[in-house]
Every structure is written in structure tokens, then in C-alpha cells.
Amino acid sequence: MKKNGYTLIELLVVIGILGIVAFVVISNTTYAFKDNTEEIYEENQEPIIIRQAVEYGKVLERAPEEQEKIISVYDLLDKGYLAPNSGDDDYVDVRTGVSMKDINIKIMYGEEITAEIINQ
């Protein structure tokens, strides 16, 4: 008698192999669906703003006794230290999509010039 088809063992082995392959593929691609806007902001956008604020602080006119100066992102855009990152000549937060023109930055003068974003 001629045997047609597969045995139950063969089918279970194939299903098991497909299950393992599916598990590996799904576990390696879940990062593609992760919301990483906070990471993008912390690794890219915030350091750029701070670095450009420090550069602006180096050329900013200030009184010798001033230890800090408050500027806004609009000042950096206006003086050309930041380029607009949206279609309507604005600088938007990658996390929220809201304009950052009113965000303030404190430039501190000491042995070296440092900056920090003071309201987000």
C-alpha cells in the first residue's frame, strides 16, 4: 500500500520549527514599533540646543559681573545658531510636536561656559 501525506510527528516537528522561527523574528523586530521620541530628544535635540546655546553665550554681550544669562530658543533661531526643523520656520520638540521658541535656556559663566534648559 502506498502512503500519501505526512505523519503526525512530521507535522509537529514542522510546526515547532515554524514557532521557533516566528519567536526569533518577532523578538528581534519589536524595537521597530517602540516609541523612541524621548530617546531622540535626549540624545540629539537637547544636546544640540545646549551646544548652540554655549556657542551663542561665547559671543553674547554681557556685563562682567553677570554670572548667568537667560535666553530663549527663539534667540538661537533668530541669530542663526539653530535651523528651523519644521516646515513653518519653527523649532519643534520631537516628543510633542509643539514649538520650542518660548523655551528658556540658562547660560552660566564660570571657568567654562555651560548651559541648561530651564523650562520644558
Topology:
Layout: H1 8-29, H2 37-59, E1 68-72, H3 73-78, E2 104-109, E3 113-117
Structure description:
Strand 2 (104-109) and strand 3 (113-117) form a beta hairpin. This protein is an alpha+beta fold and 120 residues long. The chain has 3 helices and 3 strands. It has one domain (33-117).
Note the main attributes of this structure:
single chain, 120 residues, alpha+beta, 3-stranded antiparallel sheet, 42% helix, 13% strand
Shape estimate = rod-shaped
| Class of secondary structure makeup | alpha+beta
Proportion of residues in extended strands: 5-15%
What's the helix count?
Answer: 3
CA(first)-CA(last) distance: 79 Å
Q: Give the rounded overall mean pLDDT.
A: 87
Helicity level: 40-55%
**Major sheet summary line:** 3 strands, antiparallel
Q: Topology as H/E string?
A: HHEHEE
User: What is Rg?
Assistant: 27 Å
Low-pLDDT ranges = none
Overall structural domain count: 1
Strand order in space, largest sheet: 1-2-3
Q: State the total count of DSSP E strands.
A: 3
In short:
This protein is an alpha+beta fold and 120 residues long. It has 3 helices and 3 strands, in the order ααβαββ. It is rod-shaped and about 100 Å long.
